[in-house]
Amino acid sequence: MTETRAGGPTVLRMILGRQLQALREKAGMTYEQAAEAIYSSQWTIRRMERAEGGLKPLTVKSLLMAYGVTDVREIDTFLSLSREASKPGWWHSYDDVLPSWFRVAIGLEESASLIRGYQPQVVPGLLQTKNYIQAITAASFPAATVEETQRRVELRLARQELLTRPGAPEYWVVLEETVLRRPIGGQQVMRAQLAHLTEAAARPNVAIQVIPLAAGWHPALYGMFTIFRFVGQQLPDVVYSEGLTSAYYLGKPEETARYTEALDRMCAQAVSPEHTITILRDIMKET
Questions:
Q1: What is the structure's pLDDT at 232?
Q2: Do residues 78 and 48 lie in contact, with contact meaning Cβ atoms separated by under 8 Å?
Q3: N-terminal to C-terminal alpha carbon distance within the chain
Q4: Helix crossing, 187-201 with 273-286: angle to 10°?
Q5: Residue 249 forms beta bridges with which residues?
Q6: Residue 38 contacts residue 63 (beta carbons within 8 Å)
Q7: Total Cβ atoms within 10 A of residue 39
Q8: Exposed end of the chain (fewer CB within 10 Å): N or C?
Q9: Going edge to edge, which strands form the sheet with 170-176?
Q10: Alpha helices, DSSP H only, in 182-272?
Q11: pLDDT in tens, 27-85
C-alpha cells in the first residue's frame, strides 16, 4: 500500500475505495465474487469502492484476505486508514443545516492542495464576508428561523478558516464582472465585500481573476464549478458543480480534463490577478 499524506475522512475514504478496487481487479474478482467471499452483497462492495458511507475495519480485513493480501503490516496500514476514514469531519456538527449533497464538497476542500473555480453569479463562499453570507442566506432560505440562518453563517465562516491555516491550499478563482456589480445586501455590504476581496487577493495562496463584461463568450457560461486537486497521484482531480437542490461530482480524467481546459481558457481571457485588484478598487469607488 502506498503511503499518503494525512487527509480528511472524505478523501481517505476515496483513497481507500480506489485501492480496494485495484486489489479486487488485480485478484480478478467481480463484485459478486468479492461479496460472496465476505458473505455480503455486491452493493456493499460497490459502495465501499465509491467511498459511499463508512468502512468497517472488519469488513476491510475480510476483503483484503479474499484478495490475497497476507502481509500483516500492509493489512494494519489498511485498517488504520479505514478507522481514520470512518471518523466524522468537523462539519458533521452542522448536519442540521448542511445538505447531504454538499458534505463531500467540504471534505474535498479540507484535503485539497489546490482549489480552482469559476463563479458567474456570486462571490465564492470561501471569500464572502459575514454580512454578505447573511444576505445570501436570507434570500436562499426565506422561511428559515433566525437560529438556522445563524448556523448556516457559522458553517460558511468555519469553512473559510482553511485558507489561513498552516499548510493552507492554493485558491485560484475566476469571477464574472457581474459578480462584483450585483448589489447583494445593499451598497454598504457590497463595499465591505469588495474590500475583503481586495485583501484576500493580496494573500500569497489566493489568486482572483475577473472576466470583464467586454470579454464576451467563453467556454463555461453555463454555470459554476470547482476543481479540487490533491497531493500525489492516489486521488485524481475532482470536479464539483451544484444546482438549487443537488450537486454532481466528476472524477474520470477525461471529464475533469475538459473542465481544466475550459478554466485555463477563461484564465487567459480574464485580467491578471494584479489588474483584478485595480478593478476591485475602481468598482469600490463607484459603489
A1: 77
A2: no
A3: 56
A4: 160
A5: 240
A6: yes
A7: 7
A8: C
A9: 206-211, 170-176, 114-119, 225-229, 238-242, 247-250
A10: 187-201, 253-269
A11: 999 999 999 999 999 999 999 998 887 788 899 999 999 999 999 999 998 898 888 88
Other Cβ atoms within 10 Å of 114 Cβ, number: 15
> Among all chains, which residue has been given the C-alpha cell 472576466?
211
User: Which grid cell sits at 19?
Assistant: 485501492
DSSP per residue, 80-118: HHHHHHTSPPGGGGGTTTS-GGGHHHHHHHHH-SEEEEE
Where does 38-71 have alpha helices with state H?
42-49, 57-66
Cell of 134: 447573511
Closest of 281, 287, 273 to residue 174, by C-alpha: 273
pLDDT at 219: 67
Closest by CA position to 11, among listed 115, 164, 152:
115
Cell readout for 253 is 480524467
Rounded distance, CA 263 to CA 270, Å?
A: 10
* Per-residue pLDDT tens over the stretch 95-154: 999 998 999 999 999 999 999 999 999 999 999 999 999 999 999 999 999 999 999 999
- Gap between the Cα atoms of 274 and 173, Å rounded: 13
Q: What is the pLDDT of residue 3?
A: 38
pTM for the full predicted model? 0.86
Residue partners of 245: CB distance under 8 A and separation at least 6: none
Condensed to tens digits (0 to 9), the pLDDT of residues 208-239 reads 999 998 887 776 667 899 999 998 766 899 99
Residue 261 to residue 62: CA distance in whole angstroms: 42
Nearest residue to 182 via CA among 144, 118, 136: 136
**Grid coordinates standing for 127?**
471569500
Helix (H) or strand (E) holding 160: helix 146-160
Q: Could you tell me if 64 and 23 are in contact, meaning their C-beta atoms sit under 8 angstroms apart?
A: yes
- Residue 248 three-state SS: strand
